[in-house]
Design a protein that fits this description.
By secondary structure, this protein is an alpha/beta fold. Helix content is about 35%, strand content about 20%. Helix 4 links the parallel strand 4 and strand 5.
Length: about 800
């Protein structure tokens, strides 16, 4: 190395100082993503790491994780002054936890510059130290990993870094065969993927599995996350030195690294390194010459451990959802990070809906329906006849009557007027959605923006009040707009209006602010302009090439869409797979024989018998096809059932929930699969025997539900999951055997179905939806065991009673509304 490492510098001091440095664990958080994935909200008062994730600042999760990992001194490297102020405020509240120092430099443009600045200031002294991104949410115990890295580095000074990975589902696209349902309908290609993985990456990691067998972390020999590459090239020397090289495409990079100070020195020596992963890590593991190699190792998280990065709005929503589902326990909404518990107290209600109850000033209309998972902050008002599902609502929000919110994130101070609708969207601080407006999927409405009455935002629109001059972009393209040119000329593509503080819009000091507004997008009474990503000068080879500019802009827009909530990546992954296959067919292997032997085709990547191209067959509500995961020949539902049956009575149900979730992630299963597996386990535990009377059957079910009902309710996040319980019960009743014989005759099926409803495991809507599907099958002439079970008189009597109850409830609600009027 051209520069002396920090550990050797510290070694020149006294033994007491060495022991001190070794004992005091330091950590570095890079609190800037150095990307535009969070724009345009990052132009407002909300820097990317200051976004509220389930009403907690994102950066606070990472700092709290460091404190829990035993970090005594933390360095937060940032560019934005707002981040510095927030961290200083956090330090004042949590000064007893650890020492925090802000390293702020507005000139930093990439992660490499940030690490070089740390090295120049000579701040990091501990060996090892933690290096994290500021968007990490994790519950990992790092003590064993730190100790292993420390011992490995003592034995081999070139072992300078350990990266943490979490097993998740790799992306893949399968085209199922044509379905003959007498209508000639062919099913569309289907993508399987993990929502925690960014759509712009395609990570393949090559690991030395021989060390894994010995109980040690595997060394990394290949790190490639470029989706544009159709093949991976591996030096022949690696294949010779490591015959057990295993290529994995099912690993998620957690953004948590354990580093020796030599890492900082490497960045100072290689001054052109900008990206930690695609440049430093990829180059380090690719070094062939012995003696120049810097060895990097991988630590694979256990199933009960959770770690993920919030890299864009799509992963933002996925991590939020996981926290609401308690997959990152003890990081859950009712166990807030340090400092928040003094202000708020969230209480979990049914279907994973959390409500803030410490301040106790939130009002929800009695006729409104709130479905989980979701959150409702303090000092909120929700009117009558609202339908809110899977939505996180911040503090001081006002939601009028007849509003529909689905899978949205509503930040503090938002106002949504009567009859408005929002789907899969971000509504940032103090924005306003006026009466009858519709915010389409993938939209981001920036701070202080106003969506005019009865306006409909185009899908994946991003609205901001920040001018082009303020953001440093001179891109005037309006191609993203769905409106026609005549309307644009009539309304005007953009006007500047002076708007006061009404309708939101940042802090109270904005009395008169000139806001550039696209009225054809947000309406005559709206506020804000359409934001589009800018095209950098180095994106095109010819600055005068207009077609090149338009092509680059289109690519940027498509990337922006793929990073948005509600985006379906099936077409993206299909196109990516075609391009990779086409490149392999056109170019073949390299003319060089050595390169031929060293090139690994993506289609041949195999991990422990799990083929990259294996189809993943899902189960819909009425299908008899079993659900299979990524591992060929494995029945996912059956495996989930076995996990439940192996659960030891008396153990915390939280442990079983974590285990089910881990298996779900590894096999790309669904919550419906988990609910079906748990239901089948309950039926087995009831020990149903031939001749069991319906009364004894119900008694056995109620006895089991005392233990299993909380888990079933946790797994049922909506109608589909509750309907999956009914389908599991239905499949068992027509499946034969002792259980099927008892469930399939007499009133037994009806009594079990009614008991699940009475115990509030399943609601009215799933039962009625299931009944509607069976009636549709009868109408088209189907006649099978499933239909015969449905047509049993006791089942029909229960459905008739349930439908009557539903109608009475509707009449009572109408009467209450009439009386109130």
């Amino acid at each position: 190395m051209g520069k002396k490492s920090k550990s050797s510098t510290a070694g020149s001091s006294s033994a007491a100082d060495d022991a001190k440095h070794e004992a005091q664990l330091q950590a570095v958080i890079l609190a800037d993503p150095f990307s535009d994935t969070f724009r345009p909200t990052s132009f407002d008062r909300c820097a990317p790491m200051l976004c509220p994730l389930n009403n907690v600042i994102l950066l606070d999760y990472t700092m709290d994780f460091c404190a829990g990992a035993g970090v005594e001194e933390l360095f937060v490297v940032c560019v934005d002054e707002l981040v510095e102020k927030h961290v200083n405020a956090w330090q004042q509240t949590n000064s007893a936890m650890m020492s925090v120092t802000v390293v702020r430099d507005p000139s930093l443009t990439n992660a490499g510059d940030a690490l070089r600045e740390l090295d120049r200031r000579d701040l990091v002294q501990s060996d090892p130290f933690l290096l994290l991104r500021g968007d990490v949410v994790a519950n990992v115990d790092l003590q064993r990993v730190l100790q292993e890295h420390k011992e490995r580095h003592k034995q081999d000074s070139s072992a300078i870094m350990t990266l943490l990975f979490k097993p998740v589902s790799p992306w893949n696209v399968t085209t199922p065969p044509q379905q003959d349902d007498n209508k000639g309908v062919t099913t569309k290609p289907k993508a399987t993927y993990s929502t925690l993985r960014s759509s712009t990456e395609d990570l393949v990691v090559g690991l030395d599995t021989s060390t894994t067998v010995a109980g040690h972390a595997p060394r990394i020999f290949v790190y490639d996350d470029q989706p544009s590459q159709s093949a991976i090239k591996v030096p022949c020397s690696f294949l010779t030195a490591c015959p057990n090289l295993d290529f994995r495409c099912d690993l998620l990079d957690c953004g948590i690294d354990i580093c020796s100070p030599d890492v900082l020195a490497r960045f100072s020596d290689a001054f052109d390194y900008r990206d930690i992963r695609r440049e430093f890590v990829a180059d380090s593991v690719a070094e062939e010459e012995e003696g120049l190699q810097q060895k990097l190792y991988a630590h694979i998280l256990q199933p009960h451990e959770y770690a993920a990065r919030v890299q864009d709005w799509r992963t933002y929503s996925a991590v939020s959802y996981d926290l609401l589902r308690r997959w990152c326990y003890p990081i859950v909404p009712d166990n807030l990070p340090s400092g928040y518990e003094k202000q708020f107290r969230y209480v979990q209600q049914r279907s994973h809906v959390y409500r803030e109850q410490k301040l106790g000033r939130t009002r929800v209309g009695r006729s409104s329906v709130i479905k989980g998972g979701g959150m409702i902050g303090s000092h909120c008002f929700i009117g009558e006849n609202c339908v809110i599902q899977g939505t996180v609502i911040g503090n001081h929000c006002h939601i009028a009557d007849n509003v529909t919110l689905t899978n949205c994130h509503v930040w503090d101070g938002v106002s949504i007027e009567q009859g408005a609708t929002a789907v899969n969207s971000i509504l940032a601080y103090e924005c306003v959605v006026k009466a009858g407006a519709k915010v389409s999927k993938g939209c981001v409405v920036g701070e202080g923006c106003i969506i005019g009455a009865n306006m409909k935002l185009p899908t994946f629109s991003r609205i901001t009040t920040v001018s082009k001059d303020a953001e440093g972009s001179d891109d005037d393209s309006d191609e993203f707009d769905d409106s026609d040119e005549d309307d644009e000329e009539e309304e005007g593509t953009a006007t500047k209006a002076k708007t006061g503080s009404s309708g939101g819009g940042g802090d109270g000091g904005k009395d008169e602010v000139a806001v550039e507004t696209d009225h054809h997008i947000v309406g005559k009474d709206g506020r804000g302009r359409l934001w589009l990503p800018s095209v950098d000068d180095d994106d095109d080879s010819d600055d005068d090439d207009d077609e090149g500019d338009q092509s680059a802009l289109l690519a940027k827009i498509n990337e922006m869409k793929s990073r948005s909530i509600g985006f379906d990546p099936t077409n993206l992954y299909s196109e990516r797979k075609k391009e990779q296959e086409s490149a392999q067919q056109d170019d073949g292997y390299s003319d060089n024989e050595a390169d031929n032997d060293a090139t690994m085709r993506m289609d041949e990547v195999v991990d422990d018998g799990v083929a990259f191209g294996t189809a993943d067959t899902q189960t819909d509500g009425a299908s008899e096809t079993p659900t299979y995961g990524r591992q060929a020949g494995v029945d996912v539902v059956q495996e989930l059932k076995n996990i439940c049956l192996e659960f030891e009575p008396g153990s915390p149900m939280e442990n079983l929930a974590i285990e089910l979730n881990s298996y779900k992630f590894s096999q790309n299963a669904t919550y419906s699969d988990c609910a079906m597996g748990a239901t089948l386990a309950v039926l087995d535990l009831m020990q149903i025997t031939p001749g069991m009377t319906p009364g004894r059957l119900v008694g056995a079910l109620k006895s089991q539900l005392e233990v299993w009902a909380p888990l079933l309710k946790r797994l049922c996040i909506g109608t589909e999951e509750e309907k999956a319980i009914i389908v599991a019960l239905e499949n068992t009743a027509i499946g034969g055997g002792d259980i099927g014989t008892v469930l399939g005759v007499g009133p037994s099926f009806r009594f079990v179905l009614q008991t699940l409803h009475d115990e509030e495991v399943i609601g009215e809507d799933p039962v009625l939806t299931w009944a509607s599907e069976r009636r549709t099958e009868i109408a088209r002439g189907d006649d099978n065991a499933r239909i015969q079970l449905f047509q049993q008189q006791p089942v029909q009597d229960f459905l008739e009673w349930l439908e009557g109850e539903s109608e009475e409830d509707d009449d009572d609600e109408d009467d209450e509304e009439d009386e109130s009027e």
